[in-house]
Specification:
By secondary structure, the chain is α/β, with parallel strands linked by helices. The protein folds into 2 domains: about 40-250, 3-Layer(aba) Sandwich (Rossmann fold); about 270-304, no CATH class. The chain has helices spanning about 5-10, 15-25, 30-35, 55-70, 120-135, 150-155, 170-185, 195-210, 230-245, 250-270, 275-285, 290-304, and strands at about 45-50, 75-80, 105-115, 140-145, 160-165, 185-190, 220-225. The protein has a 7-stranded parallel sheet with strand order 3-2-4-1-5-6-7, sandwiched between helices. Helix 5 (about 120-135) runs parallel beside helix 6 (about 150-155), helix 6 packs parallel to helix 7 (about 170-185) and helix 7 packs across helix 8. The longest helix has 24 residues, at about 250-270.
């Protein structure tokens, strides 16, 4: 085992920060490091937190951190930004509030953007979660910016997924349509002191009544006012209830099955990095060639 791996396992924050940068930038050393660290993982609980922009997710995460630290839990936070890395979006706005924890050695916070990840945000966040797990974090919070496909994928990689909704924004139905109902293990109605909270809870319950999850779990609905610290213990208690009911191994198998597909897809795309997809697409649109022959030729060329 390398000296770098040993320092991370020993809790060296500087070594961990350097490793996080290597993982996010896809440095060649990163994969070797993750291979060395992987046998020391499997102890962390990963909580995915997703929901519409403006729902107060960052404030909720900040309160979760405080509550978990009071329980003496070591916490890792991945604040995932699916937008351009040049906008600064991953660190601006409400997320600045989380910076108050930077002086706490029991908390490691990383804001990250998609950058050049072929495998998408799920690939990047999974590798980062492996790193934080090996570094001894008891709980890893993965916060996503929105509720698009990337965020749904990340949430599926978590041990438990918290979907944050807020009354009065008019996007609750859209969130439900986006497949959020399918991935939610716990619903949090944040800013529940605002008008419309009762209506939103009724809508969630109405949707829940239409279908039953395979595992039989009915996601609880917890009301919070994160800015005031209200409902935070109850929200974490709901998370704990889901984790304690078992089924974690089945979900882990399902998650890694999906992750392996992504890793293989990423490696294949890297191997075919010199292909001109644009030119091939133009040939297809102009009906000069068909897509099936093109893909067949590419595979044959790579096999030789």
């Amino acid at each position: 085992m390398s000296h770098w791996s040993q320092k991370i396992l020993a809790g060296d924050l500087r070594a961990l920060a350097r490793a996080a940068t290597a993982v996010e930038n896809r440095h060649p050393e990163a994969e070797t490091l993750l291979q060395e660290l992987f046998p020391n993982t499997g102890k962390s609980k990963v909580i995915g937190i997703t929901g519409s922009p403006g729902a107060g997710k960052s404030t909720l995460v900040d309160r979760f951190i405080r509550e978990l630290r009071e329980q003496n839990k070591a916490v890792g936070v991945l604040a995932v930004d699916p937008t351009s890395p040049y906008t600064g979006g991953a660190i601006l706005g409400d997320r600045i509030r989380m910076l108050s924890h930077h002086a706490d050695e029991g908390v490691f916070i990383r804001s990250m953007a998609t950058r050049g990840w072929l495998g998408g945000l799920a690939a990047a966040s999974t590798d980062m979660a492996v790193l934080l797990d090996a570094a001894g974090k008891d709980v890893i919070l993965i916060e996503t910016v929105g509720v698009g496909q990337d965020e749904v994928e990340i949430a599926r990689l978590a041990d438990v997924t918290v979907v944050v909704l807020v009354p009065g924004m008019g996007d609750d139905v859209q969130a439900i349509k986006a497949g959020i109902m399918e991935i939610a293990d716990v619903f949090v109605i944040n800013k529940s002191d605002q008008p419309g909270a009762d209506q939103l809870e009724r809508e969630i319950k109405a949707i829940q009544s239409l279908s039953t999850r395979r595992d039989g779990w009915v996601p609880p609905i917890v009301r919070t006012v994160a800015s005031e610290g209200q409902g935070i213990p109850e929200a974490l208690s709901a998370v704990r209830s889901f984790l304690e009911r078992g089924g974690g191994k089945d979900r882990a198998v399902e998650n890694w099955s999906m992750r392996l597909r992504e890793m293989l897809r990423e490696r294949v795309l890297e191997r075919f990095g010199d292909l001109d997809f644009q030119a091939a697409a133009q040939d297809i649109v102009a009906r000069r060639r068909d897509p099936y022959t093109i893909v067949h030729d590419w595979l044959q060329r790579n096999a030789n």
